[in-house]
Amino acid sequence: MTMRRSVAGIPHAPNGRDMTAPRSAQRRHSNRLTPTGLTKLDSFTARAHSLPSAQAMATSLDVGIETPRPSIELLHLVPRRPRDRERWLRRLLNTAVATVALVVASPLLLLIAVLVRLTSRGPVLFRQTRIGLDRRALSRAGGNTRRRLDQGGHPFTMYKFRTMYVASAHRDPQVWAQPDDARVTPIGRVLRKFRLDELPQLFNVLRGDMNIVGPRPEQPAIFVYLREQIEGYQRRQRVRPGITGWAQINQGYDQSVEDVRRKVAYDLEYIRRQSALEDLRIMLRTIPVIVFRRGGW
Fold first, then answer.
1. Could you tell me the CA-to-CA distances from 99 to 103, 112, 242 in Å, in that order?
2. C-alpha distance from residue 189 to each of 66, 119, 193, 293, 297 (Å)
3. Using one digit for the tens of pLDDT, what is the confidence trace for 192-225?
4. At CA 273, angle to CA 154 and CA 239, rounded to 5?
5. Bridge partners of 160?
């Protein structure tokens, strides 16, 4: 900031004001003060002090006074990227558990693959597109507007053991499975009761698409429908989806919008308190769910 101040055009001896002025605010365009103190006066300047009209020879000079700029802190600034709630320890835990589980369960995986292959025609693994982590920035309007087509998150291919017959003519619509679904094979019914059809998703964890613990990923068409029906459903996508989760150990498979609404409440509760210790606790509580077939059919 520049202020105009009337100062004497001819140097003069320092007065009390000059001596008390802080050195950090030394004046520019003036030879009265320097960073080291008073300037030495030459012979011409010394003679000028004796002029009687020296005080009347005042002029206007530009004096630059530097003032510190006030610090302005924006309290409600919308982040350009979603908050990363996944710390490295939590991701390391999920990756380590997935690696150990694949090694330990490899004989079971081979046995299930052989049974699926022998009991029905079709591939061993079932591949399906699901909606994963939403990495896009939030707009100031509160929505995701970076892309024209808002799918709600990053689509990825999820792997499961095939538990249904292969559609012969047209592809089945994206709907929820029912307890006595005619599309489910005999071996598939057993796998679904013990939730063993989810084991290939350990590869999704190693690829970075999922975690062991997190909200369950949904199919694109169902996701769009649920996003319009349930408030806060989109917030589930701010964390990586998982194989099991707080909602999965407290409730079974989804059959209606009300089931999903209750699961969303569990998912948001998990997101608020998620940590490596919380993930480990949910993993341990998943074991009795699998063994005692709670919520599986």
1. 6, 19, 15
2. 78, 12, 6, 12, 7
3. 989 999 999 999 999 999 999 999 999 999 999 9
4. 5
5. 126
Q: pTM for the full model?
A: 0.66
Distance CA(60)–CA(6), nearest Å, equals 5
Tokens matching residue 212:
């062991």
Backbone angles phi, psi at 65, to 5 degrees: -110, 115
Alpha carbons 88 and 42: distance in angstroms, whole number: 69
Indicate the DSSP class of residue 160. Answer: E
At residue 80, the 3 state secondary structure works out as coil
Q: State how far the Cα of 10 lies from the Cα of 50, in Å rounded to an integer.
A: 11
Q: Is 92 within 8 Å of 281 (Cβ atoms)?
A: no
The residues near 124 (Cβ < 8 Å, ≥ 6 apart) are 113, 116, 117, 161, 162
